[in-house]
Write a structure and sequence with these properties.
The complex is a heterodimer. Chain A has eleven helices and twelve strands. Chain A is an alpha/beta fold. Chain A has two domains: 63 residues; 289 residues, Metallo-dependent phosphatases (Purple Acid Phosphatase, chain A, domain 2, 4-Layer Sandwich). In chain A, the strands form two sheets. Chain A has a six-stranded mixed beta sheet with strand order 3-2-1-10-11-12. Chain A has a six-stranded mixed beta sheet with strand order 4-5-6-7-9-8. Chain A is globular. Chain A starts with 7 loop residues before the first helix and ends in a 16-residue tail after the last helix. Chain B is built from eight helices and six strands, in the order ββαββαααααββαα. Chain B is of the alpha+beta class. Helix content of chain B is 34%, strand content 12%. In chain B, the strands form two sheets. Chain B has a four-stranded mixed beta sheet with strand order 2-1-3-4. In chain B, strands 5-6 form a two-stranded antiparallel ribbon. In chain B, strand 1 and strand 2 form a beta hairpin. Chain B folds into two domains: 108 residues, no CATH class; 90 residues, Cytochrome c-like domain (Cytochrome Bc1 Complex, Chain D, domain 2), CATH 1.10.760. Classes of the chains: A alpha/beta, B alpha+beta. At the A-B interface, loops of A face loops of B.
């Protein structure tokens, strides 16, 4: 009978609704059990949970409610989403990277409620061509929430930032958001390696686009921008939480691949007086986090390809993500969101496509790994 | 005016006894000064690295290079002459005694070879003991060139035949996470046991969107060489997941 037949999708949605209804009455422990059971049920049916995002948001809300009862950080005053490292060629050459970026845009647009803004983490284009950047801007313009953008080396080294700045304005800026001071840096300047070698713009870009060549210089924020940062911070009291966005990690991870900022220590020194500082960076295409003094660092996922962990220099607090499956073009990729508490602490949610999401709590980093340790990988790097 | 262009052919003898490599080795030009090369009449004198046997390639002008087939014929002719002049002798053993003390000094300088200097305590007269430092130098240069070619292909989307601008290094900087030491192993997604070259070809066909290479393709062989070279010192661990 047609009325009694339910499609797989209908059954799934009914199961999901049941789980969500049940969740409102649960304590945290039972909730986690139900969550695990429902995820298991979904996986057993061979379905990819299309609403991973929403499930986990509820999970976060439940955890936060629980946490506030025990005096830990309270309800987040705001949330922002991120998309990073889309590395788009023009779609006539390569559809794959464009699809990744569009998928991330759809993810973020599906968030309810919408995030306050979307951070774009740099490397919008693959080879910095004007048509690549123009196409990238069009794709980002599909986002419903406002976009805060930073620049990556793939956007910059074809024309040294001409087109990017024409499209997006200055690469360095700051603004205040709900009591948090937000700073966006251009952290991928390089010392001139091209003039003496008489390289064309395309050759220069191609060299910067590769990780494992010794030709290019190391990334740096540079003296003028550090002076700007010092001046910008002069009016900000030490109790104001800081959020800093940079494309490269503002610390030294692995020099040979430019997972690195040459003047990282000088930038960190300017941030040291502040009680709560969170740096969100792109470039490394992997789950990556670090704590140096008062500064918490989170790396963002890419939507184009994942990178292996470097052979040396991995921050000890980083919990590696499982090795990506090369047979699944979406594996190891994703987007995510960051919940900022009223104390200015930032929890990072890695929305890994085709995998369970992973949340890294600010308290995990600030306690140097004593609490909230994220789940361990089963398959770390070779 | 008669030009005195000299081309030296270096003969490496493979362990199996077959000619391994034929090189016009410019880096040995200085050592060549130790050899007494006859003047060329109209072409180019080619000398074997025994410092004695030579023939003149008549129509080869200075600056010209021979085709591979022609160079092979010339070197075969040189080796035939050497064998006729040294009946019953083995080339590699004969070369263990350098043609002149002067040449020997020049040859030995600046090379690193595992072979110890001849002494009463070391066994002599066999194939391995007869190799000279210059042999190791040639072999290393050849191997490094092979690896360098693999590195070039690895980083070049066009050489890989990618139709979408993707090269190996974009996901595998310094060939990281290619784990050649774990092959052969059962590759779940392929439903069979795979070798490294099977995975290279899989990557070329799928993420790179090119055409899989034949297993004898020089590019595939070079890629394999580069990937293995990046894991020098890592223990073999076939079947590891």
């Amino acid at each position: 009978m047609a009325a009694r037949h339910k499609s797989v999708e209908t059954k799934y949605m009914e199961d999901r609704d049941k789980v969500l209804r049940g969740m409102r009455r649960l304590d945290r422990r039972t909730f986690m059990k139900v969550l695990a059971a429902s995820a298991g049920a979904v996986m057993a049916k061979g379905l990819m949970p299309p609403h991973t995002f929403q499930l986990v948001n509820v999970a976060e809300a439940a955890l936060d409610k629980n946490a506030s009862a025990t005096g830990a950080p309270g309800t987040p005053p705001f949330t922002f989403a991120y998309i990073s490292d889309t590395h788009m060629y023009t779609r006539t050459l390569n559809q794959r990277f464009v699809k990744g970026a569009v998928k991330a845009v759809e993810d973020v647009n599906a968030l309810d409620p919408q995030p306050d803004f979307v951070l774009f983490g740099g490397d919008l284009a693959q080879l910095g061509r004007p048509d690549e950047l123009q196409q990238g801007k069009e794709i980002l313009s599909m986002l419903k929430a406002p976009v805060k953008i930073m620049v990556g080396e793939h956007d910059w080294f074809y024309d040294l930032g001409d087109k990017w700045q024409e499209l997006f304005g200055p690469p360095t800026y700051s603004f205040d958001w709900k009591g948090v001071h937000v700073i966006v840096l251009m952290s991928v300047y390089e010392k001139d390696f091209w003039t003496a070698r008489k390289l064309t713009p395309a050759e220069r870009m191609q060299i910067v686009a590769g990780l494992d060549n010794g030709i290019q210089s190391r990334f740096e924020v540079g003296e003028p921008q550090r002076a700007w940062l010092k001046k910008d911070l002069a009016k900000v009291p030490a109790t104001t939480p800081l959020l800093v966005f940079s494309h490269s990690p503002l610390y030294k991870y692995y020099r040979n691949w430019n997972f690195w900022t040459e003047d990282a220590e000088q930038v960190q020194a300017l941030l040291r007086p502040y009680h709560h500082v969170t740096v969100i960076h792109g470039h490394t295409h992997q789950m990556l986090f670090n704590q140096i003094g008062n500064i918490s660092f989170y790396g963002m996922l890419s939507t184009a390809w994942p990178w292996p962990y470097a052979p040396q220099g991995l921050p000890p607090l980083t919990v590696q993500m499982n090795r990506p499956d090369p047979y699944d073009q979406l594996d190891g990729l994703g987007d995510g969101q960051i919940n900022v508490s009223k104390e200015g602490l930032a929890d990072m949610m890695y929305n890994l496509w085709d995998r369970n999401p992973v949340t890294v709590h600010a308290q995990y980093l600030r306690s140097h790994g004593k609490v909230y340790r994220p789940p361990a990988p089963q398959f770390a790097s070779y | 005016m008669i030009s005195r262009r000299i081309v030296l052919l270096m003969f490496g003898i493979a362990i199996a006894g077959a000619p391994l490599a034929i090189r016009c080795a410019r880096s040995y030009a200085q050592q060549a000064a130790a050899h007494d090369v006859p003047a060329a009449r109209s072409g180019t004198v080619v000398m074997l690295c025994d410092g004695k046997t030579s023939i003149e390639v008549k129509d080869l002008k200075p600056g010209q290079t021979m085709s591979r087939a022609r160079a092979q014929a010339v070197s075969d002719e040189l080796m035939d002459r050497w064998r006729r002049a040294h009946p019953g002798e083995r080339w590699e053993v004969a070369q263990a005694t350098p043609p002149s003390p002067k040449a020997s000094t020049a040859t030995m300088s600046g090379t690193q070879a595992p072979a110890a200097a001849p002494s009463l305590e070391v066994q002599q007269g066999d194939t391995y003991a007869s190799f000279q430092p210059r042999d190791y130098k040639v072999w290393k240069a050849e191997t490094d060139k092979f690896v360098a070619e693999g590195k070039r292909v690895f980083h070049d989307d066009k050489a890989l035949g990618s139709t979408i601008g993707i090269s190996c290094d974009m996901c595998h900087p310094d060939a990281a996470n290619t784990h050649p030491e774990t092959y052969p192993k059962y590759q779940v997604q392929l439903q069979r046991v795979a070798l490294l070259r099977d995975m290279i070809d899989w990557c070329i066909e799928n993420p790179i969107k090119g055409k899989a290479l034949n297993s004898n393709d020089p590019k595939l062989r070079a890629l394999e060489a580069y990937i293995y070279a990046q894991r020098k010192g890592v223990a073999l661990d076939y079947g590891k997941h």
